[in-house]
């Protein structure tokens, strides 16, 4: 039994399968949907007739309890395959699904410790093959909740774990991993790999290569382009709470030169972007239209010749929400500030 030395309490439950049959290669964070301490959660698993458990329980105040010893298989992820390979961790959370800072910091420290002791390179790759997995990859559940899910799919969670492990996320093998994370494949259908026209790190380039009858898929096999527009319903409304799946666009926004340059246009990772401070920085030119009230003398010329020009962001589908940063993800690609956005309501 080699448990984390960060655990301060142990109450082992009978809800488990005993010794693992597989080497530990993964971590799977869950959320309790309760503002419990780690001890409360471990005590619950020890006392319940429900077939539920996890290796560790991280409380809202950051305490860490053992419910199933790390070398044993807990019943957490609705998947024997995953639970045999993953150290599973239940986390106490706020009503909005976020983890209090104390809980998140403890989760990151615990994961760093687990990764170090088990030789795991923490990485979510959108498939069950990654070393970070989510309950909702195995069952119809909201677990681990929108807040933690966003931390995981944005790469923030693994970066935080690596920082805790004493690695520098900027100098290890991150670039290659991020490239594979962001590969967009152009196919007739996801199930037909032979029809593939190419795989692109840039969604922009994948869109350009996408001919009629073809679709751009992300790593999960989710179609991201062309995105079928929802039937127009409701009025464009600003200052509403955005949700995943919303159709959104921006109000007219000013542009500005990129800091340290004298141009509002810059090539970022192979994509020509315009600097829109209200949206948080560079936005791909392909995704904006020059606003009709532009004062550069060339309305709708899509050239944005000077910084008096204004743009609106074209309609897109919200595919992610990060409430802590007040940002939303655009068509499974980059993130923008939510402030200037409107959705149909
Ligand atoms: Zn779960």
Describe the protein:
The chain has three domains: 168 residues, 3-Layer(aba) Sandwich (Lysozyme-like), CATH 3.40.80.10; 44 residues, no CATH class; 109 residues, no CATH class. Helix content is 20%, strand content 26%. It contains seven helices and 23 strands. It has a six-stranded antiparallel sheet. A five-stranded mixed sheet has the order 1-5-4-7-3. Strands 9-8-10-11 form a four-stranded antiparallel sheet, covered by helices on one side. The site of zinc ion has 3 residues, from loops.
Task: Write a brief caption for the model.
With 345 residues, the chain is an alpha+beta fold. The chain is built from 7 helices and 23 strands.
Question: Can you list the ligands bound to this structure?
Answer: zinc ion
Assess the beta-strand content as a share of residues. 25-35%
> Alpha-carbon distance between the termini?
54 Å
Strand arrangement in the largest pleated sheet: 12-23-13-20-21-22
Give the helix tally: 7
Instruction: Give a short account of the largest sheet.
Output: 6 strands, antiparallel
CATH topology of the largest domain: Lysozyme-like
Q: From the helix content, strand content and strand pairing, which structural class follows?
A: alpha+beta
Give the helices and strands as they follow along the chain.
EEEHEEEHEHHHHEEHEEEEEEEEEEEEEE
Instruction: Tell me the CATH superfamily of the largest domain.
Output: Peptidoglycan recognition protein-like
Oligomer: single chain
Summed up, the domain count is: 3
Unreliable spans are 169-180
Whole-number mean pLDDT = 86
Query: What's the CATH architecture name of the largest domain?
Result: 3-Layer(aba) Sandwich
Radius of gyration: 23 Å
What is the general shape?
elongated
Q: What's the CATH class of the largest domain, please?
A: Alpha Beta
Query: Approximately how much helix is present in the residues?
Result: 10-25%
- The total count of strands amounts to 23
């Amino acid at each position: 039994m080699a448990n984390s030395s960060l655990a301060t309490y142990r109450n082992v439950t009978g809800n488990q399968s005993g010794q693992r049959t597989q080497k530990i290669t993964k971590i799977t964070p869950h959320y309790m949907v309760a503002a419990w301490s780690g001890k409360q959660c471990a005590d619950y698993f020890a006392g319940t007739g429900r077939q539920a458990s996890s290796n560790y329980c991280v409380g809202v105040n950051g305490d860490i309890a053992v419910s199933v010893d790390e070398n044993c298989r807990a019943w957490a992820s609705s998947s024997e395959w995953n639970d045999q390979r993953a150290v599973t961790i239940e986390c106490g959370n706020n009503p909005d699904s976020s983890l209090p800072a104390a809980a998140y910091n403890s989760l990151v420290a615990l994961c760093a410790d687990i990764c170090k002791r088990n030789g795991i390179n923490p990485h979510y790759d959108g498939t069950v093959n990654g070393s970070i997995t989510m309950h909702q990859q195995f069952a119809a559940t909201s677990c681990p909740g929108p807040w933690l899910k966003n931390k995981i799919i944005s790469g923030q969670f693994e970066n935080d774990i690596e920082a805790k492990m004493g690695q520098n996320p900027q100098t290890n093998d991150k670039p290659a991993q991020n490239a594979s994370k962001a590969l967009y494949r152009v196919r007739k259908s996801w199930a037909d790999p032979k029809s593939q026209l190419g795989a692109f790190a840039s969604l922009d380039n994948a869109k350009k290569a996408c001919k009629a009858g073809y679709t751009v898929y992300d790593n999960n096999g989710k179609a991201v382009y062309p995105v079928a527009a929802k039937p127009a319903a409701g009025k464009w409304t600003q200052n509403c709470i955005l949700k995943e799946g919303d159709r959104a666009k921006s109000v007219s926004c000013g542009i500005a030169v990129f800091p340290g340059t004298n141009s509002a246009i810059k090539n970022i990772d192979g994509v020509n972007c315009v600097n829109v401070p209200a949206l948080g920085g560079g936005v791909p030119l392909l995704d904006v239209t020059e606003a009709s009230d532009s004062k550069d003398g060339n309305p709708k010329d899509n050239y944005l010749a000077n910084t008096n020009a204004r743009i609106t962001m074209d309609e897109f589908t919200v595919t992610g929400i990060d409430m802590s940063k007040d940002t939303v993800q655009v068509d499974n690609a980059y993130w923008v500030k939510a402030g200037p956005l409107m959705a149909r309501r």
